[in-house]
């Protein structure tokens, strides 16, 4: 299921989807899983509930806001640069969305680099947000008044991200009524979002769902409008377990030929 940066088939909406044909051989590494969704939707809460009953605990990679004690290094420096430029904006918007997109992708590449030893050791890694957040948030920023253009840009940004690093094997999208997510985030952060910020969250929320629909092979969706927190946690746990049983070699997407980043097995590029 690893990323191949070549364009995939057209999905029904006329948007190219990112192909993840599992052509690599099976591997002993752990699966790389991301949890996505808008601010306050419950990604951290539900992931925590899901993994508390797993015997082999996954490594949980915190979302950005939770990285208060991150080790000094490039990842922290890049994130600090973005935060400084954003001057307190909760969505890290500093006014240059494409430059920010590339920096966000670099941070997510750095995240992958830091967890490679865990993956190689067979451990499951769960990223709190991955490159899908970059694609969705930056596309929503670039096209605030055109949802179709935002979708097209989000999918293109995912292709770009997939040339920097393999996409997650599995992406769990947590979705809900956008107002419920806003309200949870406000309560948690003891703040009131501006009308403009709420609108941005609503647009991002919708865009996550549309992007997920372009790649049903990679995405699983937890819709909190239809299931309670116990069912949601059970569902996430079950997907994590399934992902652990179908893991394939992880290649550098920008290398035509290359060894698996985890087990070292030599695999050929996919040209489809
Ligand atoms: N089912 C629930 N019951 C009680 N509290 C919940 C539930 N789901 C989420 N919350 C609370 O709502 C708030 C937002 O949830 P959470 O922090 O998990 O969202 P998130 O998607 O990780 O947000 P962010 O992207 O901003 O990190 C938290 O305070 C969390 O504890
Ligand atoms: C990874 C990533 C994050 N963001 C935004 C989304 C949130 O509003 C903030 C904080 O992220 P957290 O992981 O929920 O703490 O950053 C983004 O715009 N693009 C991204 O790639």
Automatic annotation (TrEMBL):
It catalyses: dTMP + ATP = dTDP + ADP. It comes from the Bacteria. InterPro entries: P-loop_NTPase, Thymidylate_kin-like_dom, Thymidylate_kinase. One of its GO terms (molecular function) is kinase activity. Keywords: ATP-binding, Kinase, Nucleotide biosynthesis, Nucleotide-binding, Transferase. Residues 35-224 form the Thymidylate kinase-like domain. This is Thymidylate kinase.
